[in-house]
Amino acid sequence: MAKPVFEHILKVRDYECDTQGHVNNANYQHYFEVTRHEFLEKVGLNFHQLHMQGIDAVVAKVEIRYKVPLIGMDRFTCTVTRIERVNVKYVFHQEIIRLPDETICAKAKIEVVNLVNGKLSDPDVFDEAFKDYIR
Q1: What CA–CA distances, in Å, run from 121 to 46, 87, 101, 109, 113?
Q2: CA-to-CA distance for 100 and 37, rounded, in angstroms?
Q3: Percent of the chain as helix, strand, coil, to the nearest 5
Q4: SS3 state of residue 128
Q5: Could you tell me the residue range of the domain that residue 25 belongs to?
Q6: Are 47 and 114 contacting, i.e. CB atoms less than 8 angstroms apart?
Q7: Whether the predicted model's global pTM rises above the 0.90 cut
Q8: Structurally, how many domains does the chain consist of?
Q9: Quick check: is 135 in a domain?
Q10: Which band of pLDDT confidence, cut at 50, 70 and 90, is reported for residue 1?
Q11: How far apart are the C-alpha atoms of 72 and 19, rounded to whole Å?
Q12: I want to staple 27 with a disulfide (CB 3.0 to 4.6 A). Which of 16, 39, 61, 127 is the partner?
């Protein structure tokens, strides 16, 4: 397996769990988003500052395959395994991997488009920032 483009370590907080003691499915989307924002910071972009300039990266589609549930206090790595540029969107392939046993808990394919002043636009600022990470 190829080394991920980016990895971010997180820990499940008890309030993120449902009655069965598993992380509620909606929280996985939060984990994936936090990781993408941290990746932006790594490449020199700040999500809030971009917004203040009229540039918004907006999720257009999310596909998540849940494999093994995370439970309270689990530590895990959330990754960006690869990034694709498809027309005007970026497709982020991401995984959540439980530590220390490295069990894949969820896989996601998240499509992001770029709006400039509210209008769909080519993601020029992201093209430059992601050029070394497109696979």
Answers
A1: 18, 11, 42, 21, 8
A2: 24
A3: 25, 45, 30
A4: helix
A5: 6-130
A6: no
A7: yes
A8: 1
A9: no
A10: low
A11: 11
A12: 16
Tell me, rounded to whole angstroms, the distance of Cα 83 from its chain centroid. Answer: 10
Domain assignment present for 125 = yes
- What one-character DSSP code corresponds to residue 5? S
Q: What is the pLDDT of residues 101-110, one digit of tens each?
A: 999 999 999 9
**CATH number of domain containing 99:** 3.10.129.10
Tell me if 84 sits within 8 A of 135, measured CB to CB: yes
Contact 98, 66 (CB under 8 A): no
Pair of tokens at residue 93: 């392939």
Query: Distance (Å, rounded) from C-alpha 126 to C-alpha 105?
Result: 28
Q: Is residue 1 part of a domain?
A: no
pLDDT at 27 over 70: yes
pLDDT tens, position by position, 43-79: 999 999 999 999 999 999 999 999 999 999 999 999 9
**8-state DSSP, 53:** T
33 in a structural domain: yes
Residue 100: asked if its preceding bond is cis (omega within 30°), the reply is yes
Give the span between the Cα atoms of 116 and 42, in whole angstroms: 22
CB-count burial class (<10 Å; 0-12, 13-18, 19+) for 83: buried
